[in-house]
Amino acid sequence: MGNTPDAHETHAWVLHPDIKTDYSARAATDALAEAVSLAHALPGLEVMGETIVRLPRAHPGKLFGKGKIAELAELFKAAEVELVLIDGHVSPVQQRNLEKDWGVKILDRTGLILEIFSDRARTREGVLQVEMAALSYQRTRLVRAWTHLERQRGGLGFVGGPGETQIESDRRAIDIQLVRLQKQLDKVVKTRELHRSARAKVPYPIVALVGYTNAGKSTLFNYMTGAKVLAKDMLFATLDPTMRAVKLPSGMDVILSDTVGFISDLPTELVASFRATLEEVTAAQLVVHVRDIAHPETAEQAQDVNTILETLGLDRDVPRIEMWNKSDILDPSALEALQNAAERSDDVFITSALTGAGVPEFLDAVSRRLTPDKTQSELVLGFDEGRARAWLFEQGLVRDEQQTQEGFSLSVSWTARQKKAFSDQFGPKLVSGS
User: For the Hflx-type G domain, which residue ranges apply (predicted)?
Assistant: First the structure.
């Protein structure tokens, strides 16, 4: 099996175990649909079929019962299946036993998401973080052929590909690799910190787009910036934060940040390793939560996003607004009901990033949220305070100026942040009279 253009696509089957004892589980049909979308997000796979397997409980050795294993074996044989994607956690023992019984490769939810992340990561940091997450995951698996340490292609080697070499990877080799990758990542993070400190000097507020994967963040980002960011109807289309300076219709300049989509049950390895990728969110002055309002589980997706934002330590004082996206695919009655609900909140906007409907009103709201209250002050500057006077004019804060015998009398209009910056640079005595 491989991903070369002349090789056939890997025949895959998606299974969702619907375990009765798992009371926190989502609706099986919605969970299966998302799992199939995950499968389609990985190049080189052809999904031959999908099945919900209802279980009273998970069997420790093989996950499924004997009868179901035999029934599925016939199904996979008839469809010439080479890879079975199981939407859930599969233990190393269960994986080994099922691969032996079915004669196929098994990939659980974590392994599949890692494969997708590896295929999509573009920045150096993103690649390193995925590699570390994959190694942490692999360390929990039984020792078996490991192609990632010497891979000659994109991807992690879980699915298979051309140029693979069979390298036996024990835990010591993985640990050595993890230490090496951590050192490289530390260097990259230091570079990012330099970039961030440089950005902090830019007087533009950061607006971070967050949301469940496939909610339409990249489409909105492209609409606002004209950038050609990958915006496809597939999960995890964006994996590295993309930042652009944007001038809003109001004339305000902001930095717009498009982030990786969140997903329920994100592997713990990835939550940890992608915290740095998502930390742009914690530096934002405004967080825009983009929701696919037409999705049957939009409320559950929103809860997953809010949970991850809390995990990231996002300050509750950072303003947030919700953009209820994909209104163009709602039927009129559903749209009307949502419009009535949105009208009761100042923080909710119904839009379609695809058609642009509702986006102007949304952008006006972004400008309003980022326009802080200003206060008026009267300053008296001596003739020797030329630098301070020049700074006020450069920032566009002076409303009126009169020359006096002692110097200059200025009326200024500024935000608390601008006032503090002036005080820090030129001394509090200059503003004490204000």
Answer: 205-374
The 3-state secondary structure of 339-388 reads HHHHHCCCCEEECCCCCCCCHHHHHHHHHHHHCCCEEEEEEEEECCCHHH
- Asked whether residue 334 falls in the same domain as residue 385, the answer is no
pLDDT for the residue 272: 59
pLDDT of residue 48: 93
Is the pLDDT assigned to residue 237 strictly greater than 80?
A: no
Give counts: helices (H), strands (E), the chain.
Answer: 15, 13
Q: At a CB cut-off of 8 Å and minimum separation 6, what does 66 contact?
A: none
Q: Do 24 and 173 have their domain in common?
A: yes
Residue 391 sits in the same domain as residue 335: no
Would you say 306 is a known binding-site residue?
Answer: no
pLDDT at 72 over 90: yes
**Is it the case that residue 92 has pLDDT exceeding 70?**
yes
Of the three residues 346, 370, 394, the one that is the final residue of a domain is: 370
Residues 6+ apart with CB under 8 A from 42: 112, 115, 116, 119, 159
Residue 155 is labelled as binding a ligand = no
Full residue range of the structural domain in which residue 207 is found: 202-370
| Residues ≥6 apart with Cβ < 8 Å to 58 | 17, 19, 21
Residue 72 annotated in ligand binding:
no
Report whether 213 belongs to an annotated binding site.
yes
Region 305-326 average pLDDT: 83
| Each residue's pLDDT tens digit, 23-60 | 666 788 888 888 888 888 788 889 999 999 998 888 88
Q: Is 145 annotated as a binding residue?
A: no
Could you report the per-residue pLDDT of 128-160, keeping only the tens digit for each? 878 888 888 877 764 443 344 444 444 555 555
CA atoms within 13 A on the CB side of 142: 10
pLDDT of residue 275: 61
133 annotated as ligand-binding:
no
3-state per-residue secondary structure call for 40-94:
HCCCCEEEEEEEEEEECCCECCCECCHHHHHHHHHHHHHCCCCEEEECCCCCHHH
Secondary structure letter of residue 8 according to DSSP? P
326 is in an annotated binding site: yes
Question: What confidence score (pLDDT) does residue 2 get?
Answer: 42
Query: Looking at residue 389, which CATH number applies to its domain?
Result: 3.30.70.240
pLDDT for res 267? 67
273 labelled binding-site residue: no
Residue 240, annotated as binding a ligand:
yes
Q: Is 222 annotated as a binding residue?
A: no
